[in-house]
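Input record (one chain):
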Amino acid sequence: MIDFAKKDKEVERYFERYLNDLDTFFMLLQTHFGTKLTERNSLIIFDEVQMFPQARAAIKYLVADAQKAIKAKNDGKTEARTK
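The corresponding structure, as predicted from the sequence alone:
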């Protein structure tokens, strides 16, 4: 869980600088929080997100990226079945 009420400047910098590079963004979050994120099996909770507008704005971007990844995986499975 990322609690934006705690005003963690380092995490805020991740949102400001690395949303265009999600691999780095998620690696930094893993290192900062000492946890491992696994694809399609992890959940990040944004608590008090209204206190940090960049994170709130990032939600739409992060969801869109996840949807693209899911679509790409599904397209790959469909292609494999038709060959």
